[in-house]
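[step 3/7] inverse_fold.run input=structure_tokens len=190
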């Protein structure tokens, strides 16, 4: 039995579940860093995610789908963290900056990297998630569709919009509204 924050988990530490979980830790941490932009916050997020995964181990019936299941848990925890910060305000712990991604980038690429990090933070969670699954995790359209439970065509269009939005933010351009959307918007506003 594994104890996680007072909750007893029914999967033993030497189970195939635990072994598979351990193999996904590096990918999960990388995904968390990309979501949060901070290794220290990402580590806390991964720890909370693993704790939740251990508590809900019985809900995963096929360990082949564990990567997506873990990323989903992580994303939900991240969204909850953002919501909590909005209501409480953001407290700053100076120790978080010792491993901050923005600070650890070499000076030669500092401005470009900072712009990219800020642009990524400027995306909606939906767009950031789809970009990270495609770009960082290297999932194909069908794998993303399966993980998010949406049609493949929706993945393709969201990814295209997310890339365009990111490009516009990085290039400090105003977001372009396609002519078809303008027509629909003007009809709605009337």
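[step 3/7] decode complete -> sequence:
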């Amino acid at each position: 039995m594994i104890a996680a924050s007072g909750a007893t988990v029914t999967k033993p530490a030497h189970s195939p579940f635990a072994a598979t979980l351990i193999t996904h830790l590096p990918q999960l941490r990388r995904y968390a860093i990309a979501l949060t932009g901070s290794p220290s916050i990402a580590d806390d997020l991964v720890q909370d995610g693993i704790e939740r995964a251990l508590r809900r181990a019985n809900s995963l019936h096929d360990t082949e789908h564990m990567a997506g299941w873990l990323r989903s848990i992580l994303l939900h925890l991240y969204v909850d963290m953002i919501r909590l910060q909005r209501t409480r305000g953001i407290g700053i712990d100076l120790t978080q900056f010792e491993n901050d991604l923005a600070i650890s980038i070499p000076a030669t690429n500092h401005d470009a990297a900072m712009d990219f990090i800020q642009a990524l933070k400027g995306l909606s969670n939906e767009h950031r998630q789809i970009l990270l699954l495609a770009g960082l995790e290297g999932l194909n359209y069908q794998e993303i569709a399966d993980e998010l439970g949406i049609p493949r065509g929706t993945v393709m269009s969201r990814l295209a919009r997310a890339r365009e939005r990111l490009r516009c933010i990085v290039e400090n351009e105003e977001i372009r509204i396609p002519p078809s959307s303008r027509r629909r918007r003007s009809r709605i506003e009337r």
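[step 4/7] annotate
The two ends are 63 Å apart (CA to CA).
Confidence is low (pLDDT under 50) at residues 1-11, 175-190.
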